[in-house]
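Researcher: Next sequence.
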Amino acid sequence: MYLKYRKLKNLIFHFSLYLCAALVLIPLVLIIFFVFKMGATSINLDFFTSLPKPVGEDGGGMKHAILGTLYMVSIASVISIPLGLLCGVYLSEFGKGKVATLLRLTIDMLTGVPSIVIGIFAYITIVVPLKSFSAMAGGVALSIIILPIVCRSTEEILKLVPGHIREAGLALGLPRWRVIFNIVVKGNLSSLTTGVMLAISRAAGETAPLLFTAFGNMYLSYEIDEPMASLPVQIYNYAISPFDDWQRQAWAGSLVLIVLVLGINIFARTLISLKHIKFRYRG
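Model: Next structure:
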């Protein structure tokens, strides 16, 4: 009787786990399915290679917005990734004392700041003094979003490295900086890359900061000091428009953005899986 009771509890527990997993997956699957249903019919070569047509004229694409998103995310990455990696290495290897405690608190607070507040901050500190919306302002706003994620993920990844690996390097006479960068960091490049890509995927889908900074336009621009279109902002502008063709393109842009973000996340998870498989094979 007791054995049957334990089996029943085990069955109920497993069922609860599967139910929770399904409840998490169902919204994601429904969103992807609905966006794919609404946007797939509008995806064509012209969408990726053409600029928007004038109001009232059907056709055109979001080439400028796609390139603008990649451009500003690249600016944000150049600013935040090196700084975030160095900050994470410092917290992992020298993370004791008041400075490290204050730095961790700052990073945790920065992680929780709403993106619209970051956009307002970039607007006040960059757009207002320069008296112009710009791709640089958008890149700086996105870099503030990327920075704490890269820093935290780097710290947690490097903390997983066993201490005896560092001690072995020091025992060979290597200076500590070489042990950190040539052994600790180099041995975890794939995991660090995963954290970086997850941070980039988070920033790529942000709309609010870019409304206050890059603002957007209907033309293709590569000037860093001028307004620049981005995919999230373009989707927003098209979605609230009264024109059916623009709304159709908004769904297509949403699909492209979801594929971009999911693609980055899947690639990052694949890197982690490959590393675990390689580690088990060596073991």
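Model: The radius of gyration is 23 Å. The chain has two domains: 2-42, 45-282.
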